[in-house]
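Researcher: Next sequence.
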Amino acid sequence: MKQLIECVPNFSEGRNLEVIKQITDVIEKSEGVKLLDVDPGFTTNRTVVTFVGTPEEVIETAFHAIAKAKEVIDMRGHHGDHPRFGATDVCPLVPVSNISMEETAEYARKLAKRVGEELNIPVYCYESAAFEPKRRNLANCRNGEYEALKERIASTDWKPDFGPCQFTEEVAKSGASAIGARDFLIAVNYNLNTTSTRRANAIAFDVREKGRPKREGNPITGKIMKDENGNSIYIPGTLKGTKAIGWYIKEYGVAQVSMNITDTNATPLHIAFEEVCNKAAARGIRVTGTEIVGLVPKKTLIDAGKYFLRKQQRSVGIDEPEIIKIAIKSMGLDDLKPFIPEEKVIEYLIEKDNKSEKLVDMTCTGFANETASESPAPGGGSISAYMGSLGAALGTMVANLSSHKPGWDARWEEFSVWAEKGQQIKDDLLYLVDEDTHSFNLIMNAFGMPKSNDEEKAARKQAIQNATKYAIEVPFKTIQRSFDVFEICAAMIENGNPNSVTDAGVGVLCARAAVIGAYLNVKINASSLEDKAFADDMVQKAHDYVVRAKELETQLMQKVEAVIEG
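Model: Next structure:
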């Protein structure tokens, strides 16, 4: 699955729109990334830009945007209300989907190294990309701001991680940059059935990590207590990694708890929602809904939907749109205005702009008609993957039906686990439907390469072999994932709702057909591969799956017949 990261560079220019546009134009013209937001601030003299894409394309785009900022921004005359020490003041990378924080931090360091060495900008790595603990905190790296940069970059303790340590004229113009990796920040407002800002603030203080000041005597009007250093003492709130305040929104006529969730691992959105609801209820107030400001990763809503399904003792093995619908309704995301996932979820925005026609998006009739046409693709490989996905879907259906069977309430979680597993197998095989056709097209494209001289002939031959090898690997993956369907269907035949045993039986037949069909594709593509050792090994492994698939089909169909006969 595609990896996605978000990049949120902050440029030290918020007043000259022409300068800002020169930087954002670099991002908009870059391949493989999508510019999501440009937020200039006049008072801060700072612009926050947000774009997203695959890791390599994001750091390539970020590099060129930083280069452009160095060209068009002169820090020697910069002033604004926000702390700053460079033209590209900070550039955090944020993991969005299918990528860990550790991997994201490595990309941040890779970008930092290139910016330091190729653009001659002093760079500090911060947050999860920091090389030492004291540099995790951005405020430490930027202490003294631009005005202190000359002394700091030359010092032992605050020498940049990459780039120059001398305050040359070039560095004086560009300043320094902090490049790091951090968690996704979710900005969210909880709507309350009150107009009282004071009560909203009280709830915010109950939950936010910082909490509320500790007071002598009366907890509201008493004198704030101080420690031995003269600093206010705080009673911590209940939610780690959150900041919150209460306010009144005239537009909606209600008070809200406004929260930034800065650590979604410590406090996921749905947990924050539940805690705000609890603290509000303790004060006689009800949360009527939730407003997400900006965008969210898909995982945020999927995790929330599954959380609320489990609370209802319902199967979480349902398809993605239904899970997201549960999240929307459970947290009241559509309380104040419609919540449209295609406009609020980062991954959906990316898919919408890069959407190409997929076989799996066709109607059943359209897919059948396309298969029946004179076009050689989709062919047997795609059909095999689709049969496998239908087998997984049937096993999953039986699991969900069993989870909701009257009298089996105590077993809901058992079947939910099977349904969730089946959904993943189904989704993987649906991906392989189009990937098999894509692998065939790669071979055709390779055959169409020029061959007018020896160099072109060699490149064409290598491309054909590479594409052929991939055309073996794709149906082999179909074999493996289709074979996994047997486990789902076997569990449903043996332990699932007996009224649906024939559905699980048909799932077994689909899985067997998928394994054998994909095996034929492995075999025919392997016959034209020059790497005979690889080809023979893949064919033998595929054949072994076929033998086991036939054995399992026989065994499981006998069990289906036994259940039918009672």
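Model: The mean pLDDT is 93. The first strand starts at residue 4 and ends at 7.
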